[in-house]
Amino acid sequence: MSFMDNPQWLEPARGAAAGAPVPPGRVTLLGAGPGDPDLLTVKAARVLREASLVLYDHLVGEQVLDLVPASAECIYVGKESSRHTLPQEAIIDLMCRLARSGRPLVRLKGGDCYVFGRGGEEALGLAQAGIPFEVVPGITAAQGAGACAGIPLTHRDHAGTLVLATGHLRGDNDTALDWPLLARARQTVVFYMGVATLPTICAQLMAHGMPADTPAAIVERATLPGQRCLTGTLASLPGVAATEAVQAPALVIVGGVVALQPALARGMACAG
Q: Among 5, 43, 57, 178, which one carries the catalytic annotation?
């Protein structure tokens, strides 16, 4: 439902005296984690159970939303590739308007708010508007994908550096990211939102010196039913992903740690 369909969301909080100034409500920027509701933090689960007004994103799972009381009002403001319910600036404006009505608000985002979740933009907008807020961190998708797929993001024998990068490229793909930095040896690079740009990502890493046989993986629907982990190399992974019709949400993981995935995945299956 659109907030335009329910204008009482913007009315002053109940109990406010007529004409009296209403102090802004507190906004909680809350990370819902990678999808599995069991991976919510204890604080996140408590905040959701106490929520009365929630703005939530596309990647927030239904089981997470089930924790919100039935009496709460939930507003969908999700963004998919080329399909935005509201542009980011409008979401920030809506958050400020709702908070100024005096009602506490939960801004529910997938993963962690401050890791490719635009939480920094929203927090800055609230700070500049003088609206009180707090941030409840969540497990970011890279952590969820690595743990559930059997890919340690760091390992003393393979990677002493972990880099998180966006795969949502803009403009000239040759300069959109710091490719020489990303192509360095002995590190793990995780690309968020990289399904559509996977061929470009792999080609640019190889063009900047990363060996074509570097292990690489793409993890689809990490932590959720139907999760898939497909492995290959920089040279082969785009073809594997295309053949298997990988769809978002998915993460791309590049580096020597991916070579550990078959053994660790077998061990996890035996333990389960």
A: 57
Average pLDDT, the chain: 90
Distance CA 51, CA 67 (A): 9
Q: Do 130 and 182 have their domain in common?
A: no
Q: pTM for this structure?
A: 0.89
43 catalytic? Reply is: no
Query: SS3 sequence, 176-235?
Result: CCCHHHHCCCCEEEEEECCCCCHHHHHHHHHHCCCCCCCEEEEEECCCCCCCEEEEEECC
Q: Are residues 7 and 73 in the same domain?
A: yes
Same domain, 190 and 95: no
Domain stop point among 110, 136, 162: 136
> Do the beta carbons of residue 114 and residue 34 sit within 8 Å?
no
pLDDT in tens, 219-249: 999 999 999 999 999 999 999 999 999 999 9
**Collapsed DSSP state (helix, strand, coil) of residue 30:** strand
Residue 106 belongs to domain with CATH number = 3.40.1010.10
pLDDT: which is higher, 82 or 68:
68
Mean pLDDT of 13-22: 59
Q: Which member of 79, 112, 157, 178 is catalytic?
A: 79
Domain of 159 in residue numbering reads as 141-271
Is 237 in the same domain as 146? yes
Is 57 a residue of the active site? yes
Look at residues 152, 148, 180 and name the one whose alpha carbon lies nearest to residue 165: 180
